[in-house]
Amino acid sequence: MSVLKLGLPAGSLQEATADLFRKAGYKITFPSRSYYPAIDDPELHCTLIRAQEMGRYVADGSLDCGLTGHDWIVESGAHVTELAELVFSKVSRRPVKWVLAVPNDSDIHGPKDLQGKRIATEVVNITKSWLAGHGVSAQVEFSWGATEVKPPKFADAIVEVTETGNSLRANNLRIVDTLLTSTTRFVANPQAALDPWKRQKMDDLLLMLRGAMAAEGKVGLMMNVRKPDLAHVLNKLPALKNPTISPLADQEWVAVNTIIDEDTVRHIIPQLKAAGASGIVEYPLTKIID
Amino acid sequence: MSVLKLGLPAGSLQEATADLFRKAGYKITFPSRSYYPAIDDPELHCTLIRAQEMGRYVADGSLDCGLTGHDWIVESGAHVTELAELVFSKVSRRPVKWVLAVPNDSDIHGPKDLQGKRIATEVVNITKSWLAGHGVSAQVEFSWGATEVKPPKFADAIVEVTETGNSLRANNLRIVDTLLTSTTRFVANPQAALDPWKRQKMDDLLLMLRGAMAAEGKVGLMMNVRKPDLAHVLNKLPALKNPTISPLADQEWVAVNTIIDEDTVRHIIPQLKAAGASGIVEYPLTKIID
Amino acid sequence: MSVLKLGLPAGSLQEATADLFRKAGYKITFPSRSYYPAIDDPELHCTLIRAQEMGRYVADGSLDCGLTGHDWIVESGAHVTELAELVFSKVSRRPVKWVLAVPNDSDIHGPKDLQGKRIATEVVNITKSWLAGHGVSAQVEFSWGATEVKPPKFADAIVEVTETGNSLRANNLRIVDTLLTSTTRFVANPQAALDPWKRQKMDDLLLMLRGAMAAEGKVGLMMNVRKPDLAHVLNKLPALKNPTISPLADQEWVAVNTIIDEDTVRHIIPQLKAAGASGIVEYPLTKIID
Amino acid sequence: MSVLKLGLPAGSLQEATADLFRKAGYKITFPSRSYYPAIDDPELHCTLIRAQEMGRYVADGSLDCGLTGHDWIVESGAHVTELAELVFSKVSRRPVKWVLAVPNDSDIHGPKDLQGKRIATEVVNITKSWLAGHGVSAQVEFSWGATEVKPPKFADAIVEVTETGNSLRANNLRIVDTLLTSTTRFVANPQAALDPWKRQKMDDLLLMLRGAMAAEGKVGLMMNVRKPDLAHVLNKLPALKNPTISPLADQEWVAVNTIIDEDTVRHIIPQLKAAGASGIVEYPLTKIID
Amino acid sequence: MSVLKLGLPAGSLQEATADLFRKAGYKITFPSRSYYPAIDDPELHCTLIRAQEMGRYVADGSLDCGLTGHDWIVESGAHVTELAELVFSKVSRRPVKWVLAVPNDSDIHGPKDLQGKRIATEVVNITKSWLAGHGVSAQVEFSWGATEVKPPKFADAIVEVTETGNSLRANNLRIVDTLLTSTTRFVANPQAALDPWKRQKMDDLLLMLRGAMAAEGKVGLMMNVRKPDLAHVLNKLPALKNPTISPLADQEWVAVNTIIDEDTVRHIIPQLKAAGASGIVEYPLTKIID
Amino acid sequence: MSVLKLGLPAGSLQEATADLFRKAGYKITFPSRSYYPAIDDPELHCTLIRAQEMGRYVADGSLDCGLTGHDWIVESGAHVTELAELVFSKVSRRPVKWVLAVPNDSDIHGPKDLQGKRIATEVVNITKSWLAGHGVSAQVEFSWGATEVKPPKFADAIVEVTETGNSLRANNLRIVDTLLTSTTRFVANPQAALDPWKRQKMDDLLLMLRGAMAAEGKVGLMMNVRKPDLAHVLNKLPALKNPTISPLADQEWVAVNTIIDEDTVRHIIPQLKAAGASGIVEYPLTKIID
């Protein structure tokens, strides 16, 4: 039997990844102390790998494909084929940014001011490449963690990841510049991407993952509408969605069924009701494949 | 941008309130140690306030509106406009009652027996006003908590809140009379209620809150019915609900879709099946706006 | 008012049983330290009883009916009427097996090798009856627990329950034979099963329990299909399910609504899409009564 | 190397036993899912065994010795040699009692009233033997647990273990008679008790266990006393203890050092101070061997 | 038997109080849901009472004595006899202060600036009395909690309790003045304090509580010293402590035993060693009565 | 005021380090989300730093001194002065080892077999230097974690830290060689070690840390002995300890006070008792400075 070797990111994204897979219809369980999660598809073999190392092992064929951040692909310089961008995050759906940050009262206000300074970071290669692009020479030190508490005693500046900037602000740091914006990617080994069976397997998997992601934050809405009010009601629904309109036994009425963004529900429902919709019911969805 | 200042009750109702708002489509999060919950609507500004103080701050305009108990509005004597009654509670949906309770073996059997006695309570004003209505004079002491353990050593009687009476019984207390029945209310500052923008904002919010509350304890039911059985099947459904009947490709059959109370499902389904319904499917709902 | 006395299994199955009842529409709560769970149906009176004793108390009429394992009915030799087999389990849906197990390096390879040996087990009667069937005489000792750690020091062999065999393997034990396969059963006192009111009550309860079990692991799928593609799309759906096909306002299209196994979704959706289905939406179900 | 096979009671006494051993100077750790606790003495090999089965396995030589309750030795009828009584218990130091209990409103007031009744108990043999002693014939049923909730529906009376009687009272049961009083015993296989090496090993172990138990609830007290006050101070100390009196550099004073019960400290210290003791210091102890 | 009715403060000080009593030799346990803690002295009867109400109930004789803060005695205006000040606190041993605090950018810089302002506080009487002392008239509102988040929207200033000022600073508040400094007090009903039996019982209890508090933060130190070095070593010990010097069998040496503050140990030990002390051993203490 | 900048290892050793400091008399607390632990000595300023980076920051003077593993000092190549070896560990007191490990069935049996292989490790420099010493060339890859699960798919061999070898065995790995044995060290910046005030401060701190470590696993033992038995009793005590012998009021007896290893107590006490010691009491210690 053919098997697709799939790398899943260990650590902070692990549970969110498993949730996404579960919504997509794949049951993943993490046996304690094992790095080989069980999955209910015998054609998939999963391995938990640090996001930092995913590029390396997909590139050398130890894995056929994997999920990891765009940042770590760039940092590792790994040669992999990107098949999809996946936006999911427990805390938010915003992409993360790697920024140059300095103490609030620092004299550093741009790349040029870094000449000869000490910079602590987990992404040494991204930082060095960015400095080279600005023609600046500085001492870039690998940071094993807690980077944001290092300035000013242990570093003059840092390059650190942030989503909201809260942690930087809490440490009295000021953002000077953004080096890289990053989201989660599904990457494949270039040869695996050319193998027909593996590629079909990856495409089916991505179809389901996208279907699950599309359903997050969406809800179903059904309502009954008198035919004279139909145009008015449809006018209130988001233009790009194509609602299903079905006849009812009572021929004066039709049923309208549609999918809308959960966070627009509260704006649209008052308008639908005003436009003549009745018996409006919102129901949950688990997958949407257009 | 206009902003509506909304007070949410801190403490035991806090999580239940946030759940209700989430079901209504508003994401509320409580930053640790902050009394300003985040909400994903920039036109709303939330503040956590003790239920006891909500009336005072809505009345003086520090807040435009808020959720609190009818009891604390009465106790504080605050001048506010009540816009809606909201019935939600983690433990039960029954309203709470403020009752006069005494030890099982007490000689007190009615208001008149309280003359000259010590009464401990958190609602000093409600109690005094009730005593005055009965022409009785007694010593009413503010209780900082654990009121139900005070009789007979620290008080002769108490006025205490209860839902089921369990806690009173467990402390060997007997209910003599009910002073007030209370549910949660949505109250507004009288001037804010006259401001067109604020009033529309509050009405839309209430429409969504009511839609979410209506869906709690309700489920959707869909089934296929042969046309000759339709009248029989419809006869088994609760009279006041208007089911949606839609044609099917197979013209001998119709589809019936309706909303019923979750706790009647187990009585109705056996009857529907006996009346000829087939393929009965129950599905969950998140909002109902009639 | 008539009351049906229902026994629920205390211990490891307790929460799973309550979950099943909740999905079936019955709210069960466990007051702390009480063996009489509350249920929101005044015609049912529940008692928590150890699975091992359920047969005894249903047989002698202390209870009208109850849920317990087939194994304990056999072990107790109780005279009860089995009304239904219920397959539910938190960990898996596989039935449990009582097996004869010995140390990996034991000389015991079949029933005959047990002559004169010490066997530790919780099911002394099942074991003795099985030994007698093989004409073997051995010393069967009741084990109060931790049976799987007894060989070889405290027993030569054990008869122990297992679902996956993992615990036996972890204790270096080898399965020699299977004595009994067991699932959960709904059993009734023979006279209660003949009482019309009690029997109707039990049948309605079983209808709802089966409806809830049928919905576990199933999802609803709805999609729009152009009429020319309909045969092709229907061809991809599992044969035995009869999808609901309903007309749409746009007469070139029909809506298809069906129920499928959750773990086949990921195989079927890519095929449906390829066959021409559009706007495929998956939604959750809570009960299915065919 | 010689090894002593020691059984430790699994379950409710397990942690209390390990605590006692730790205080006695033996470090016991419980590897998860193993029934062979690790101990830092290579001459001891520990096994966790249910208290109910300890007698059986010590009697047949599977174990050399073990700790278990007197009740389970009697119930199992095992032939073992009792070497010591050990009184330790997390909740209290009172021995447990097995009592006959009936509903408060039962007609049963003595053994004779049990004729023909149903009795549920975990100690079937003790109960049958006691009934036989009273010339009474009743139906004794083995109870798998929750025995105290069985009367009156599932049994007329129970024989159940109790320390304080609280649980019986909470279930509206009344104690009719006491069948057996039980404490923890250290029992040995009769032949192991005659083996010189094993006996010496057991005696040394018991010396340390007793030293640790003696120190529980005891404290050290030291104080300085002027010689003229010495007789007066000594007079206040418990008679049976022999305090250490040592000279000080200042020849008018002596130091007194003694061991007293922790719960008498609060009565004795005020008296010692009044009698002239100064600089009274209480310090903790971990072992006392007289 | 005579009984002393003792009030213990419910809430944040409850566990710290019980710890202190346990160290003093009294075992207190809190039965769940009961306000009557069990204590192993039949002559004491304990009741948990809010610190705010302790004064009221000690003053009216419902209790003979109790522990509460000086602040709440002042606030309640209760007539009680103070027998002792007890300094114990989980977090720190510093007394708490009630301070007037305002937003950092407020115009209020002293009592006079409060004229006509809104002040929120839990100590309405203390605040009003302090304002009167400064001849200032302001609106003092009772705050049910979360007082520190009220300025500037819900109050212009607050009177709030603080130990370190951290919580005030975190809410951007500035301390303007201190109204009251408070520690825990042992207070008695004036008549109970004159009753000989009750007074003796309270004095004995206070002796033990003080002994336990004296031992907190103290350790015992013993060492051997050659006689010629003795003066030098003693010179390094805190002057006010009187060490016990005892002869040894080896007449060139003496043993020195003393009690010192735990947080001076690290300064003194290096000096003792330099002065010739050897075999220095530190050991723990549980009670000290001088 | 002079201040000593002290680095403490963040992460797995953090709590153990704080425990050791607390036993030595320094109260360390970790404010949440801060990397600057509070300590009750104003002359010490603590910073939490990853063990891997401690050498770097002590060498460049960002810190005066710090605690870290010998392994990370070697890996970083930092120029620091080692002042003491500190042996403390929650799990054990054994030093850790960095070992070369390969799959059980690997062909690699010595350094020479590594030629051209992939080695994953967190200590890239130690590994490269060791390979160079053996004249072997291999591909050494930095491992971000979970190194022990990498062979054979992601590496041919690993260099990993181990205390007991359990984790390696659980991953079916075999130890081929040991590269480095490591314990915790107290290291100083070379210039700080020459500064008189800083050096004295470090020496005093080390004296207290050593005193606390010496007391771990030791207990005090005191007993009374008749003079004729004294030689016999002393003979049973460990030779290297010098017990304190003091006279008693009863001149036939002396008191003996000594310190012994906790894990020898159970062997020595039976012998002391046999030799004539009476009233043997064991008591706990917190610090020993010889």
UniProtKB/TrEMBL annotation, chains A, B, C, D, E, F:
Feedback inhibited by histidine. It is found in: Cytoplasm. Residues 50-210 form the ATP phosphoribosyltransferase catalytic domain. The keyword Isomerase does not apply. CDD domains: PBP2_HisGL3 (cd13593). Pathway: Amino-acid biosynthesis; L-histidine biosynthesis; L-histidine from 5-phospho-alpha-D-ribose 1-diphosphate: step 1/9. Catalyzes the condensation of ATP and 5-phosphoribose 1-diphosphate to form N'-(5'-phosphoribosyl)-ATP (PR-ATP). Has a crucial role in the pathway because the rate of histidine biosynthesis seems to be controlled primarily by regulation of HisG enzymatic activity. This is ATP phosphoribosyltransferase. It comes from Gemmata algarum. The lineage of its organism: Bacteria, Pseudomonadati, Planctomycetota, Planctomycetia, Gemmatales. The gene is hisG.
